[in-house]
Amino acid sequence: MTTDLPMAALNIQQTSDNISCLPTELLIIIFSYCASEEPLGPTAIRGVCRRWANIADAVPVLWRRILLDNTKLPISKLQHQALLFLQRSEPFPLDVEVRTHDPERVLPILAPLLPSISRWESFTSVGFRDEHVDMKEWPLSSNAVSPIPLDRLVLAVHELEPEDDEGGSTADNTNPFFKYQSIFTLDGSMQLRIASLPSSAQLVPLHFTHLTISEGVLEPTHTNAAAILDLLLAFPVLRVFIFEGWQHDDEPLSYPTPLPLVSLPYLEVLHIRTTCFIRRLLSRLYTPRLRTLILAYLNVDFRVQSAVYEGDEGDSEDEAHDFSQSPWSDHATGMGLRSLISRSRPPLQVLEMDYSDMRTKDFRWVFDRLTDLEEFRIVASDMSNKVIDLLRPVRSTKDGSMATLRLPQLRKLHLDHCQRLAGDALVVAVAERTAFTDSSHIYNKFADVTVTACDQVETRHEDALQIILGPRFNC
């Protein structure tokens, strides 16, 4: 029997009283066969007559196979189709199949179904890659002993390599985002290798709590601040965001439309690594719950377009005129951090800066406002003695009494390869702060001070810090 017969039966129904008089139980058997041979059969059945529509709507098993074919229908219609089948099939398990030649479309197509992935019994992809996954025993499945949520999304922005003559890929098999690695992983992640980020306009709100975007190094395919911010609009419950880029500065001086302001009310961890548009990213985020900020490998020795004068407070030259090997990226990082803190007033507890720097005026501005910061780590910084002096108690110029203490909750200080920092200045700042906080019941005391490979910190300075801090000092 061919697959055309079930659809032919639908046409016969209009003229045959025999079919219209069949009992419901027999019609259900026929409809089930139709659905097994033709995935869109249930929708065709519903359009024949009211009785058939009522039967189809009352039999969830007819809707459990979901075929989303982007070669025949646009994304908007596929999303509507996915929701219809998802609702009608409740509570049965689902067999999900996606057909598309464009990997950028996979996430928009599957978006309506992802919150219900525990119901998936199998997943099949055809076109951009061929894959079949039996998900009955996966940790994501409701059948698993301890089902885990699908809460992590990893997007690798790479140029997509053509397949070789034998059907394999020219991609490096050691790459974690190798083309034929499964889209869904055992740790509750979904990962896609794509050439560009999808638009938020194509996505329904996604309920991932962890998002990682990575750019392939030195590839012709890369992303920009506008695309990242636009995508973030589709992640209303995001808690962790990691962006790993590379240092290309091809951002236009101005966008035809303003960059969106993205509200991430639940974001707690923000990790940005290796990019030249740090200012544009940080200046358009609202993160009122941010607790951990990690900035890594942002220093560059060339002019960064996103650091050009924009007229914001603090954009003027640094009055300290301290030495810097990366003045343009220092400016961009500092101004981006100012904007983020001004808008969000986050209860930041951890600030880590690895090969990422700011101007002295930006350090002062930031330290004056991070009243909840408990841990400050900085690696390979050009920070001067003026910055470490900011940790000393600030005393009144009139009578010498204490007025304020910057970073009043600071407990951990890690300084690594800070080559411009003088040992004498470090000892004075730590000694004064330690004497003050150790005798106070209001401010946090140092719990850990670590100094590593700072050229101007000599053995005599280390000995002095050991006396001041005792076991709290690590060298």
TrEMBL record:
<dbReference type="InterPro" id="IPR036047">
    <property type="entry name" value="F-box-like_dom_sf"/>
</dbReference>
<feature type="domain" description="F-box">
    <location>
        <begin position="16"/>
        <end position="66"/>
    </location>
</feature>
<dbReference type="Pfam" id="PF12937">
    <property type="entry name" value="F-box-like"/>
</dbReference>
<dbReference type="InterPro" id="IPR001810">
    <property type="entry name" value="F-box_dom"/>
</dbReference>
<dbReference type="InterPro" id="IPR032675">
    <property type="entry name" value="LRR_dom_sf"/>
</dbReference>
<protein>
    <recommendedName>
        <fullName>F-box domain-containing protein</fullName>
    </recommendedName>
</protein>
